[in-house]
Amino acid sequence: MHFILGKACYPGITLYVNSTNSIFSTFLVTGIPGLEAVHIWMSVPFCAMFFTTLVGNVTIMTVIWREQTLHVPMYFFLAMLAASDLGLSFFTFPTMLRIFWLDARELTFSACFTQMFFIHTFQDFESAVILAMAFDRYVAIACPLHYSSILTNSVIVKIGLAIVVRTLAIQMPLPILLRRLCFCHSNVLSHSYCLHPDIIKLSCSNTRINSIFGLFVLLSTMGLDFLLILFSYILILKTVLSIVSYGGRLKALNTCISHLCAVILFFTPMLCLSILHRFGPKLSSYIYVTMANMHFLIPPVMNPIVYVVKTKQIRNKILKLFIKKGPGESQVTFIT
Predict the structure, then answer these.
(1) 266-313: per-residue pLDDT in tens?
(2) How many domains does the chain have?
(3) Which domain holds residue 85?
(4) In a domain, 24, yes or no
């Protein structure tokens, strides 16, 4: 037991010594600040986003799994991206909908730490997958004749395992380190879900180790991934500019548009939020919450839409799931 500022503090529970009532053992998540009166109406677009996320990403994964012609590195990485988007959605959207529908804001410490672990795990997993997709695009453009010999199935499996091992190894210490802290400043979180930087702000213990390790995790995963993606596109641009024909350049760049959209959707809100927190003026909490929601909620919704719109093979295979040609008929009929 630790005594801090006149308080008897156990890990996860704070008790004021002179009071018998001031005990908390839960965190309170927050909806959209200032818009509590219209939470029930705001749940409608969020429900639509969650439904779109589920349908879009499950459809992409199903199509890639069923169609042998799509069993190539580019689409394996796309299936991994869809899986990470699904995981991120399952640990963010339901908590928000609970707030909007039921005003259910309480989360136990264990539930909060578990949610935080999975949110950051899928976040790092997605970052690594986007990096792998950048490498895939570089190989496809720079070494098109050796593409299939470089990115073999065994190489794809090794890349996938490396992503999983890196993500789990670097994320597992976070909830363990949090359990050594005491929380007495407040139990009200700034967002609708549990995030590591948000949690340690509420601690009255020494959080230096948590802060340093959290910064290390951020820089060694998404920070490093972003720099390597930029480096990949510098190499891609250099290769494209060496192509003689204008049509060849355009065709090569066109194969990167979907991936570039995924990069922009994933990293832009995160970079803007980091810059605002560190260098920007003090803004309304509504701005920070909106940027955080964009980072966690928009990519899972938009990624499948972008890939379906921009990738003809995916679009055609999805149509085959819902449309079939009758025997001997030239027209198509929709399956009901």
Answers:
(1) 998 888 777 766 655 566 677 778 788 888 889 999 999 999 888 888
(2) 1
(3) 7-314
(4) yes
